[in-house]
Write a structure and sequence with these properties.
This protein is mainly beta. About 15% of the residues lie in helices and about 40% in strands. It has a domain at about 1-65 and about 100-130. This is Fusobacterium membrane protein.
């Protein structure tokens, strides 16, 4: 919650509207407010709601997002400094989160686009978040998946309002790990986009591995000349090795796949640094492809579900294995005995605690394959710097707070 400065209390009111977007908008006799920011060129006496987050006074038109986001103008160190000053001095609270807004450069009257979040049109031009989508066809415009900010019309492809350098193939989809970046993947041409960043299209087609997987930090993309991933710290495509796979690649689960000869699986590994005074600091995240076995003679036995599928049971010879898709630290476990196999096949309520108990009692035994290829993301230097010297920062901030209290006491 933030303070509105210089507001006229007697005339201030929040917008009385059932519109989801307008919950962050208010006005008094002098100003319209987006969050706690006064907009100088919107006349509160002529103000009206267009819809989908758009507002006007008949002369000027704005878009204001109903969803707050981190204030990009506030650095980590500045944020810590301002928070401390606020705690001790009761000064204005730093704007750590804001409701982004933008003036729409138009002299035409806009209308909200039905069932299209944050879209508006003047009849010819189409706006998203207050910016123009160049050459967009409103009649065929839609989100690729209904959730992300990748859009298509009959011909063009967009990330937010940025026109991407491909045409709509009709076979675009969103792929990601369970909690990773949302990636635009063109199944027709094998193109890959992360936001408006394009993988090298001359190396396409890429085949995506790990979509929906929970035992990997990063999707892998297989091309003829090598294996790639998107390094989230470097913000670019990175080659991590030769294409080691033979023939056709098929997924058994989102975490496990085969080529013409072998079975491979994903798993993750974190690298931690233990400082003298800082405790453990995460320095890198690693996604690894392991070789499991030759693919011959493996047979799927059953899915294991707890309302949704949490894993599968597989058999080779007389041995049974659990391939995890949800609960566990590792990807593949050997099932130790028939009692455990029967439990997994027949239990009505399998949960994380049950599975952990099986591991601790050596009823499920971790399978360790042979590492073949690794994607490493070194964590951001600013993050590591702040964590490493957090105690020093805390001491400095407490000292600043003490100085402010002494100043106020003697004032």
């Amino acid at each position: 919650m933030y303070t509105l400065n210089n507001v006229d209390i007697d005339t201030f009111r929040a917008i009385s509207s059932e519109d989801f977007y307008s919950k962050v908008v208010g006005l008094d006799k002098n100003h319209v407010y987006f969050g706690n920011i006064a907009i100088p060129d919107l006349d509160p006496n002529k103000f009206y709601i267009i819809g989908n987050g758009y507002y006007s006074d008949g002369t000027n038109t704005y878009y204001c997002s109903p969803v707050s986001e981190k204030n990009k103008d506030l650095s980590i160190i500045s944020e810590l400094f301002q928070i401390t000053i606020n705690v001790f001095s009761k000064n204005k609270k730093p704007l750590i989160y804001i409701y982004p807004y933008k003036k729409v450069e138009t002299d035409k009257k806009l209308r909200a686009v039905k069932n299209m979040f944050s879209f508006a049109t003047d009849g010819k031009k189409v706006y998203y978040n207050g910016e123009i989508l160049e050459n967009a066809d409103l009649n065929t415009l839609k989100s690729v998946d209904g959730y992300t900010e990748y859009f298509v019309d009959k011909e063009n492809v967009y990330y937010k309002t940025r026109l991407l350098p491909i045409k709509n193939s009709g076979e675009l989809k969103i792929v990601s790990t369970k909690q990773g970046n949302k990636v635009l993947y063109d199944e027709a041409n094998g193109y890959v986009f992360i936001e408006d960043y394009s993988f090298d299209r001359e190396k396409a087609p890429y085949k995506v591995l790990g979509n929906g997987g929970n035992h990997l930090y990063d999707l892998f993309f297989i091309a003829k000349d090598g294996i790639y991933f998107y390094n989230t710290q470097k913000k670019k495509q990175e080659r991590i090795g030769d294409n080691i796979f033979s023939g056709n690649i098929e997924e058994l689960t989102p975490n496990i796949f085969t080529d013409d000869k072998n079975i491979y699986y994903f798993d993750t590994y974190d690298v931690w640094f233990k400082g003298k005074n800082t405790g453990h600091i995460l320095t890198s995240k690693n996604t690894i492809i392991y070789y499991l076995d030759k693919k011959d003679n493996w047979e799927k036995v059953s899915d294991i579900s707890d309302e949704t599928i949490v894993g599968t049971i597989w058999k080779k010879g007389n041995d049974y294995y659990y391939f995890d898709e949800f609960y566990m630290k590792n990807t593949i476990y050997q099932i130790a005995d028939k009692e455990t196999l029967d439990y997994l096949l027949n239990a009505n309520n399998i949960n994380h605690d049950n599975m952990v108990n099986l591991v601790e009692n050596k009823k499920l035994i971790v399978v360790n394959g042979e590492e073949k290829i690794r994607a490493t993301t070194e964590l951001n230097g600013v993050y590591r710097f702040v964590i490493k010297y957090s105690k020093i920062f805390l001491f400095i901030l407490i000292a600043i707070g003490g100085i402010f209290r002494l100043y106020k006491k003697n004032k």
